[in-house]
Amino acid sequence: MITISRSLMRELKTIFSRGLGIITSRQTGPPVEFLVDQHGLRIRTRNQQIAMEYYLPAGGLESQHIVTPFGLLRCCHGLKSDPVHLQVKNEKILAEWQDAGIPQSIEYPVVECEGFPELPDQLEQNESRLMVALGDACDTATTDSARYALDHLQLRGSQGQVISTDGRQLLIQDGFQFPWEGEFLVPANRLLCSRELRRGKSVEVGRTAEWVTLRSGPWSIWLKINEQARFPDVMEIANTGPETVATLQVPDEDAEFICSALKPKPFHKGDSEKVTLDLNGEITVCAREADQVQQQRDFVLCRSERSGKSLQINTSRHYFRRALRLGFREINLSGPDTPASCREGHRTYVWALLTQADTVQPQTDAIRIESTSVSHQPIRTRSQQKDVVVKHQPDQKRDVAADQVLTQMKTLCGGLAETVSHIRDLMSQLREQSQDWSRSLTSDQSVST
C-alpha cells in the first residue's frame, strides 16, 4: 500500500496539468506512476515533450509500483493533509480516503505507461536564479511560431546563456554553468514559471542525447531537445546595435507608478495598446484607455531623467512595462525607428518600437497625472532574491517645497473634478433614459386603453 496526503495530490494535479498543457477537466492526461524504492517515493508522469517527477524521501519502505490514470489526481485531491491509500487489489487499483469524515473509494483498471527518461551522468549545479531566468524566458517566447521555433528556448552551453524571443522582443540571460558544448532548443513550457520549482536553494542541470534535465528541490523536470527546429540568429541584433543617442533612467518609485498605470486589461486593443514616450523636457508617457472611451492620460515621470538627445518614441505598452518589471532601470534609445535596449549584469532585453504613424497625438483635454502625486509601494521583481530591510530614520530631513505640494494638490483636485464630472454626465444620461422609458410606457398604456 502507498499512502500520500490529499494536499500533495492537489499540488501534483496542478503542476502536472500545467506542464502537460491540460486546460479543462475533460482532457485526459497520461498515466501517473507511483514508484517506491529503498530511498523513498517517486511520483511521475510524461508526454512527448516533457517529463516530471516529484520525490518524497523516506526510508525502510517496501518496493512497490502502481500506475494510475490521471483522473485519480482529480478525484482524491484536497486542501488538507488527510491520507489517500493506494493499492492493487483483484487486478484493479483501489484508492481510499475520507472527505469531511465520510469514507470515499474509487477503482481503476490497471494501466501501462511509457518508459521514463534517465538522469544524465553529469549534473552541473547553478544558483536558484536559473529557474527565475527560465521562467522569464518562457514569458518572452510565444505560442505562435511558423518559420522559426519562437515557442522554444535556446540553451547555449559554452556561453552559459538562455535566449528567448517572440520576434519583437528578445531576452538574453547568461552567467550559468551548463555541462555541454554547443546549443540546442527545448520547449518553452509554462511550468518553468511556477513558484513550486523554486523551492531549492540551487538548481542542477544536465543533458542526455534527447533530454535536458532540471532538478530543484523535490522536483525533476525533463525537456525534450528539438533537433529539427530553427532559431533566429539573435546575437547579431544584441551585439551590433546602433549607437545610443539617449538614455532614460527610471528610479524604482517611477517604475512602480508607470507599471501600475499601464497594467494590461482584457479589453485593451487598437490605440490602447500603444503609448508614446516623450523625452522632450518632462518625461511623459501618453496613453489612451479603452475603458474611458479612448480618454487620453499623460503620465509624468517626475523622478526620471534623460541624458542625451531629446526624443519621442512609440512603443507597445506591454514591452515598455515588461522592461521595468524585469528590473531594468536604464533604457537605451538609438532613435524612433530602432529597437530599444536594456543591459544590466547578466541580462539584455531588446524590443522593437512602433512607427511614427502610431504616435499618440497630444490632446488638450488629456488627464495629467504626475508620479509624485500617487502613493506607491517599492517594486519587487522576480529576479530579486534578497529581502529588502528598511530601517527607520527618525532624523531624516524632509525636503519638500511648498509649491511642489500645492502642485500635487492641484493635480489631484483636477483628477477628482474630472471624475465627478464624468459621474454627473452618466447620471444625467440615466435620468434622461428613465424619463424616455416612462413616457414610452405611458404612451403604450394610453394606446391600449
What can you see in these coordinates?
Helix 5 packs antiparallel against helix 6 (317-325). It contains seven helices and 26 strands. The chain has helices at 6-20, 71-76, 129-140, 235-239, 252-261, 317-325, 402-448, and strands at 2-5, 32-36, 40-46, 50-57, 64-68, 83-89, 92-99, 102-109, 124-127, 152-156, 161-165, 169-173, 183-187, 202-207, 211-216, 219-224, 246-249, 274-278, 284-289, 295-300, 305-308, 312-316, 330-333, 340-344, 347-351, 367-370. It is an alpha+beta fold and 449 residues long. An eight-stranded antiparallel sheet has the order 5-2-3-4-16-15-14-9.
In short:
Helices cover 23% and strands 32% of the residues. It has helices spanning 6-20, 71-76, 129-140, 235-239, 252-261, 317-325, 402-448; strands at residues 2-5, 32-36, 40-46, 50-57, 64-68, 83-89, 92-99, 102-109, 124-127, 152-156, 161-165, 169-173, 183-187, 202-207, 211-216, 219-224, 246-249, 274-278, 284-289, 295-300, 305-308, 312-316, 330-333, 340-344, 347-351, 367-370.
SSE diagram, text form:
Elements: E1 2-5, H1 6-20, E2 32-36, E3 40-46, E4 50-57, E5 64-68, H2 71-76, E6 83-89, E7 92-99, E8 102-109, E9 124-127, H3 129-140, E10 152-156, E11 161-165, E12 169-173, E13 183-187, E14 202-207, E15 211-216, E16 219-224, H4 235-239, E17 246-249, H5 252-261, E18 274-278, E19 284-289, E20 295-300, E21 305-308, E22 312-316, H6 317-325, E23 330-333, E24 340-344, E25 347-351, E26 367-370, H7 402-448
Parallel strand pairs: 20-26
Antiparallel strand pairs: 1-6, 2-3, 2-5, 3-4, 4-16, 6-7, 7-8, 9-14, 10-11, 10-13, 11-12, 12-25, 14-15, 15-16, 17-21, 17-23, 18-19, 18-22, 19-20, 24-25
